[in-house]
Amino acid sequence: MTTCPLLFLPLLFLFIIPSFSSVTKLNVLSYGAKPDGSADSTKAFLAAWTQACASTSPASIYVPRGMFLLRNVKFQGQCKNRAISIRLDGTLVAPADYRAIGNADSWVLFQDVDGVSILGGKLDARGTALWACKNSGKSCPSGATSLSFSKSKNIVVAGLSSENSQMFHIVINGCQNVKMQGVTVTASGDSPNTDGIHVQLSSGVILNSKIQTGDDCVSIGPGATNLWMEQITCGPGHGISIGSLGKDQNEAGVQNVTVKRPHSSELRMNVQNPILIDQNYCPGNNNCPDQVSGIKVSDVTYRDIHGTSATQVAVNFDCSSKHPCSGIRLEGVSLTYKNELAAASCKHAGGTSFGVVQPTSCL
Ligand SMILES: *[C@@H]1O[C@H](CO)[C@@H](O)[C@H](O)[C@H]1NC(C)=O
């Protein structure tokens, strides 16, 4: 009888001690962050990040209720652990003067990180004054992307909302294995260049989001492969576009993209070009020699897509003669234009269609 506890003691250490999981918890308030929306909390957030990144065990950064003012900030890897979660009950706000971050590429940037999750919370970049500047034709800063991931992998963003971005809301660039679940994007329908989520040079990205914005809901740039989009709600906005592909001869191709049942919400009267592949994209119509894209688009599936289009051409595959689009599949597509039949347009696009496809497929 007396030997039993002795025998079990080592087992207790083996099995019970590790289950007191050693997550390092870091509250940004302990680092001097102020939830008042006016004191600059950038340094406090960076200090919490530095500690999380240096921790050899999983770390959790907590952002409580309140508004935290952040300037443009870079959360840099590589880190000592592969499990950093950032839990937000509060809102991150950009400085009121758009010039403070307007010339930075990104407002909140994660670079070279592996295993980062962002759970809940809100980003408010306060972009309206910059949109007004841009819409007035004055010269203005180009604006920062609200949230960017660069050269990173194993990223989860869940339940985050982004409001009033200066430029794009979210950019995924050079990443692998990124899941965005229940992410909400909101900006007014006439806000310039406020793409919802932009993906490029990245593989294994899964998106499931509600997007209301002034430009593309999702824009897909060069080098996006194995991209899966499901339950995307888009509108107002410009739909899901595979474009901006003609700028540079050496850009990587786009391959294996699936768009499964994005549905426009009740605010669905303003979805322009719900389905768009544009290899001849040329911003400002200058500096795009011969309009011949150097990159290839293949294996793009659109499945169970319903909604309304603000333009008559609801499906537009504008591919280049040099690299025609191939392997495009339309399965159960139904898009209307002002309660009439919408139109489809194909240039150099090859593929197949299955089931009911309206407008009638031009593949
Ligand atoms: C295409 O991408 C999906 C994820 O979006 C992946 O599960 C699938 O294996 C990929 N197919 C190929 C042929 O790589």
Characteristics:
single chain, 363 residues, mainly beta, 2 domains, 19-stranded mixed beta sheet, globular, disordered N terminus
Structure characterization notes:
The chain is mainly β and about 375 residues long. It has 2 domains: about 1-265, Pectate Lyase C-like (3 Solenoid), CATH 2.160.20; about 265-363, no CATH class. Helix content is about 10%, strand content about 45%. It is built from 3 helices and 29 strands. The protein has helices at about 5-15, 40-55, 130-135; strands at about 25, 35-40, 60-65, 65-70, 75, 85-90, 90-95, 105-110, 115-120, 120-125, 145-150, 155-160, 160-165, 170-175, 175-185, 195-200, 200-210, 220, 225-230, 235, 240, 255-260, 275-280, 295-310, 315-320, 325-335, 340, 345, 350-360. It has a 19-stranded mixed beta sheet that branches. Strand 26 and strand 27 form a beta hairpin. It is globular. Residues about 1-5 have low confidence and may be disordered. 2-acetamido-2-deoxy-beta-D-glucopyranose binds next to strand 19 and strand 22. 2-acetamido-2-deoxy-beta-D-glucopyranose binds near residues 226, 227 and 228. This is Polygalacturonase. One of its GO terms (biological process) is cell wall organization. Keywords: Cell wall, Cell wall biogenesis/degradation, Glycosidase, Hydrolase, Secreted, Signal.
